[in-house]
Amino acid sequence: MELNSNYYSIIDFLESKSLSWIFIADHRYPWRATLSWTTFFLLTFAVPVLCHFAYHLRPFDWIVQVSLSLISTLSFVSLLRFTRKYGLRRFLFLDKMDGVGNKVRRRYSEEVHRSTMLLCAFILPCFVCDMIYNIWWFTSGGTHIPYIYNLYFSHAMACLMHMTSWLYRTSLFLLVCVLFKLTCSLQILRLEDFAQVFEKLSNVGPILVQHLTIKRNLRVISHRFRAFILLTLILVTASQFASLLVTTVDGSVVNISSTGELALCSITLVFGLYICQRSAAKITHKAQSLTSLVTKWHMCATIDSFGDMGAVDENPRANITPQMVDLDSENEVGDGDDELDNTNFIPVYKHTISYQQRQALVTYFENNETGITVYGFMLDRTSINTVFAIQLSLALWLFDKTIGFG
Q1: What is the DSSP letter of 7?
Q2: Which domain of life is it from (predicted)?
Q3: Which runs of consecutive H residues, i.e. helices, occur in 16-46?
Q4: Is 286 helix (H, G, I), strand (E, B) or coil?
Q5: For residue 319, which of 307, 359, 386, 389 is within the disulfide window of CB 3.0 to 4.6 Å?
Q6: Which long-range contacts (CB under 8 A, 24 or more apart) does 137-142 make?
């Protein structure tokens, strides 16, 4: 698959030989793998440990460093396992793009561009905030902050290493989250393309084959990402509770100067978790919407079969009453509608599929709901809303303690 060359692509970045070593340890090239592992250990463990023990005046720094180091370690190991076992393009299902249409290719290219912009739009402002905070902290501390030989040079190097470590760890975590979003987005596009099969002359066989392919892809995605999603949820929750506990201890000084970086860390972790859970909930909702679509198609075909008992017509028909057809003529809430979620009636081909076959297909979809699962638990909107409500409550409580906006 060829993506639009005008877009800066995450995929192109991860496949480039000059830059991919930053996040991916490619063992086909020993020197690049060594450089990647060295960078990982330095920026994930060595620099945070050195900064914490050398500049221990920050009261909540250990929570920030442990949280970011653990989540970046999980992301690095997950990305390494994905690329070594499957390869990047196979991992993202790009090797299966030969069987999809140009519309899906074009929309996926646009989705890659949007995901790249999302990653940059979040990381860059957060990095600027972290840079301002660290520059202010090092300059305001003066001689109270330990230094070696020269005050200004020592503080400048420490500030630079600290910001580089923060940028590397947060980028690594959010990169894996965005890759999961891209994987789900491709399957959503395939689901929407599959929904159009009911408007064409077709038999039950091709419909079942396409649905089983999509169902298998969702099962594969669930299997690949289930450990990452579960461990991310555990780590983010543990980080939020740890932040909650240390900021409520008697004698804790909670203000923007002492907990500014802690708040920034909390925002980053919750945002990454939100990307994963929203993507999982969206594709699960789309997959489960197929049951409603098939039922509507069956209903339209059944009503149409009683409207005209004449010869077989090879053109699409929609012999529903005009009052029913014009339901969407004044579409005020349909901006987010697509082929799966809309209130439009489906044009049908008379006598293409018998009533018994349509009814069997409806029963099949009713008893074979699919979506993203984590060790058997379906990640639908209900479960996602519950988890995110807990995370958001902890984050808002922390922000209230940090900047006092409540």
Answers
A1: S
A2: Eukaryota
A3: 30-41
A4: helix
A5: 307
A6: 137/58, 137/257, 141/57
Specify the length of the chain in residues. Answer: 406
Contact 327, 343 (CB under 8 A): yes
Is 268:168 a contact under the CB 8 Å cutoff?
Answer: no
Count CA atoms within 13 Å of residue 115 on its CB side: 26
Number of H helices, E strands in the chain: 12, 2
Say if residue 403 is exposed, middle or buried (CB neighbours under 10 Å; 0-12, 13-18, 19+).
Answer: middle
Structure tokens, 283: 């594709």
* Tokens 């543990």, located at residue: 238
So what's the pLDDT on residue 57? 62
Phi-psi region of 375 (alpha: psi -120 to 50; beta: other; left: phi over 0): left
Q: Following CA atoms 186, 284, 268, 12 in sequence, which dihedral angle do they give, to the nearest 10 degrees? A: -10
DSSP letters, 293-361, are HHHHHHHHHHHHHHH--SS---S-B--S-HHHHGGGTT-SS-TT--SSS--PPPPB-TTSS-HHHHHHH
d(CA 243, CA 395): 9
Say whether 378 sits in a helix, a strand or coil. Answer: strand
How many Å apart are CA 110 and CA 102, to the nearest integer? 12
Instruction: Break the chain into its structural domains and give their ranges.
Output: 10-283+379-403
Beta bridge partners of 348: 317
Interior angle at CA 335, CA 331 and CA 341, nearest 5? 90
C-beta of residue 369 within 8 angstroms of C-beta of residue 288 = yes
Rounded Cα gap, residues 398 and 291, in angstroms: 42
Query: Of 124, 138, 121, 116, whose CA–CA distance to 166 is shortest?
Result: 124
Q: Global pTM?
A: 0.82
CB 218 within 8 A of CB 283: yes
- Cβ neighbors of 260 (< 8 A, separation 6 or more) are 133, 402
Do 3 and 111 meet the contact criterion of CB atoms below 8 Å apart? no
Output the CA–CA distances (angstroms, integers) from residue 349 to 199, 302, 346, 353, 364, in the order listed: 8, 11, 10, 8, 21
- Sequence letter at residue 322: P
